[in-house]
Specification:
Distance between the termini: 29 Å
Strand order of the largest sheet: 1-19-21-22-18-14-17
CATH superfamily of the largest domain: MoaB/Mog-like domain
Shape: elongated
Structural class: alpha/beta
Strand content: 25-35%
Largest sheet: 7 strands, mixed
CATH class of the largest domain: Alpha Beta
Bound molecules: adenosine monophosphate, magnesium ion
Number of domains: 4
Number of helices: 7
Helix content: 10-25%
CATH architecture of the largest domain: 3-Layer(aba) Sandwich
Number of strands: 29
Radius of gyration: 30 Å
């Protein structure tokens, strides 16, 4: 296993004098300071789905490996000029996997099936639907260009070319390509392990009795789900109350079990905000006051050498901060490289006035080609997360959105979910 170097302890430090950090600056800092932390290994192709390529993969075979027919028909040496042609047939045929063992003389044709290697003397195929055939000969009308209905050797990808680049998260189409170019063992990164930990005395596990003042832990199932959908390995670290000793012990455990840690709750500067207080003790905490709604605060630190994303407790803010800040950063740590969310412009189905100086994310969905937003912007309104299919992103400046104006919609999938 090839192990990358550890992260620097001051990797989250903000430049002096910086107070409210614009979203793009925060993202730029994460992008500059973080690097891949996962080791490399080789896995069989059958186990490579969803894994991240550790190296460029070179084609060890061309696709297609030899020129072959794209249709069922008759092969000959092209071109065939305009007008009627009658060609005598040679004996035998060429089929996929069963090549013809002779060559085809000029002026003659051979029966050929889809995927069959072109025999010597053949570079052009006429489709059987365009032919009148009788024993021993065929007739058809030209013109037909040389090379028609044939696939050239290596026309898709040639031996020695780069088939896929390092950092690619392998999908089903990638597995097809790797198989086609003769790659059976794939160099991949170890899956990034991401620990998820909830904090707060008020939290109760789903299914348990919840007394007055208690609420069910909603962030943990959500964040574990996000981690899994992003292709990482989720490590469930449970819940801890607002107790510094318990939190310290659990963070130690998490640092031993995972490559990165997501906590939610307790990240502000209040009396019961033990996550930020404890992270401060390590000397590596940076509280980032990011100009984003919903969001602040986001605490970033290293604990036992592992990056910790101290997310806000409010579920909507926790989700937005995870998708906007943690997801691209985790992609970088995992070896995929930085990944910007992919969205697109749609006409708004709503009106909204927005102040300058911060970026805003609204729970949104698309109906009739227009972006609708959830009726409330309350950061504790969990039902809106379930209602939405993604987020509308409103830029840092002042904005008065009127119905029909273009707004940027980022579907959950655009964040990698
Ligand atoms: P905090 O950041 O700890 O001040 O929490 C902010 C708000 O989010 C409070 O109303 C908490 O009760 C709530 N909250 C914190 N953690 C969770 C959680 N895991 N699930 C649901 N709500 C939470
Ligand atoms: Mg709390």
């Amino acid at each position: 296993m090839l192990q990358p170097p550890p992260l620097r302890n001051d990797c989250f430090a903000l430049p002096p004098g910086v107070d409210w950090t614009p979203v793009d600056d925060a993202l730029g800092l994460l992008r500059d300071r973080l690097s891949p932390v996962t080791a490399s290994q080789s896995v069989p192709l059958s186990a490579a789905l969803g894994r991240v390529l550790a190296e460029d993969v070179i084609a060890s075979r061309s696709n297609p490996p030899q020129a072959n027919s794209a249709v069922d028909g008759y092969g000959f040496a092209g071109p065939a000029g305009a007008g009627a042609h009658v060609l005598p047939l040679v004996a035998g045929r060429a089929a996929a996997g069963v090549p013809h063992d002779g060559s085809v003389p000029a002026g003659k044709a051979i029966r050929i099936l889809t995927g069959a290697a072109l025999p010597p003397g053949v570079d052009t195929v006429i489709m059987e639907e365009d032919v009148t055939a009788e024993p021993g000969r065929i007739a058809f009308h030209g013109p037909l260009k040389a090379g028609a209905n044939a696939r050239r050797a290596g026309e898709d990808i040639a031996e020695g070319e780069t088939a896929l680049r390092a950092g690619r998260r392998l999908g089903p189409g990638d597995l097809a390509l790797l198989a086609a170019v003769g790659v059976a063992n794939v160099p991949v990164r170890a899956r990034l392990r991401v620990a998820v930990l909830s904090t707060g005395d008020e939290l109760v596990e789903a299914g348990q009795a919840a007394g007055p003042g208690r609420i069910y832990d909603a962030n943990r199932p959500m964040l574990l789900g996000v981690i899994e959908r992003l292709g990482f390995h989720p490590v469930d670290m449970g819940r801890v109350g607002d107790d510094r000793g318990a939190l310290r012990a659990r963070l130690d455990e998490a640092a031993g079990a995972a490559d990165a840690i997501l906590t939610s709750g307790g990240a502000s500067a209040g009396d019961e905000d033990h996550v930020s207080a404890l992270l401060k003790e390590t000397g590596a905490l940076q509280e980032w006051r990011i100009a984003v709604k919903p969001g602040r605060p986001l605490a970033l630190a290293l604990w036992g050498g592992r990056p910790v994303f101290g997310l806000p407790g409010n579920p909507v803010a926790a989700m937005v901060c995870t998708l906007v800040f943690a997801a691209p950063a985790l992609a970088l740590l995992s070896g995929q490289g930085w990944r910007d969310p992919q969205g697109f412009d749609l006409p708004a189905a709503f009106e909204k006035r927005k102040k300058p100086g911060r970026r805003e994310y609204l729970r949104a969905r698309v109906r009739g080609g227009r972006a609708e937003v959830f009726h409330s912007e309350g950061s504790g309104r969990i039902s809106g997360l379930s209602w939405a299919d993604g987020l509308v992103e409103l830029g840092d400046g002042e904005r008065h959105v009127r119905p029909g104006d273009p707004v940027r919609f980022i579907p959950w999938g655009g964040f990698g979910l």
